[in-house]
Amino acid sequence: MKNQKPTTAVALHYDGKEAPRITAQGTGELAEQIIALAKEHGIPLQEDAALVSLLSKLDLGDEIPQALYMAIAEIIAFTYILNGKIPEGFEPSPEQTEL
């Protein structure tokens, strides 16, 4: 039997005014519940073990650190596009226009 690490999940909230905040986090069964709720509510999921590892070190309610702004901004922009919204000032790169 393969020894698997438990699933870890981190949820963020972004209001457009302040840095995104940690709104839920957990491992194992709690992580599975967070993921199930996100799917149930149509919230896009991003799988990135390194990013989750960094975010899971924060406490509930914490703003994400400035060092992660760019990584999180790219995810937020992508979710806007998935929902048919274009972020203000967004200019797609040539690679993105081929999608």
UniProtKB/TrEMBL annotation:
A Pfam short name: Bac_export_2
Keywords, alphabetical: Cell projection, Cilium, Flagellum
Gene Ontology BP, a term: protein secretion
GO cellular component: plasma membrane
InterPro entries: T3SS_substrate_exporter (IPR006135), T3SS_substrate_exporter_C (IPR029025)
UniProt feature coiled coil, ranges: none
Annotated PANTHER family: FLAGELLAR BIOSYNTHETIC PROTEIN FLHB (PTHR30531)
Record protein name field: Flagellar biosynthesis protein FlhB
Organism of provenance: hydrothermal vent metagenome
